[in-house]
Amino acid sequence: xxxxxxxxxxxxxxxxxxxxxxxxxxxxxxxxxxxxxxxxxxxxxxxxxxxxxxxxxxxxxxxxxxxxxxxxxxxxxxxxxxxxxxxxxxxxxxxxxxxxxxxxxxxxxxxxxxxxxxxxxxxxxxxxxxxxxxxxxxxxxxxxxxxxxxxxxxxxxxxxxxxxxxxx
Length: 168
Hints:
Number of domains: 1
Strand order of the largest sheet: 2-1-3-4-5
Order of helices and strands: HEHEEEEH
Number of helices: 3
Largest sheet: 5 strands, mixed
CATH superfamily: Lipoprotein like domain
Distance between the termini: 44 Å
CATH architecture: 2-Layer Sandwich
């Protein structure tokens, strides 16, 4: 009997947290009324184009929202909506040696994000998010690009998700 009571208590507690819509185990704070989310395709408008970057970033943001919330993904017009564009993708030298050559290069990606919360306009924002990764200058960007962009995208998505849904 005691075991049955614990199970009922656990199920009730989980149902309350899940049903109220304002809490998720990722720390997201989502309005109770929100049921859907949309993440529009982020076109690459940077001068230097990585052909997979738009798709990689958009997919990563969609995956993060789907995996860390209970919202349903819709094509457009979600209760919570993300859109924007990739505005910068560049590599620059960052550590110059005595011989005036770069010891390190830096790959930087910047994304402009617009977020709309249909139930709380004070949560709406348009912000630029930027991250970088350094790599040795003796390595060709094409050889390390996939690994670097993956790491940078992960950090960008975390920042976007946190600003929109964790309220940092």
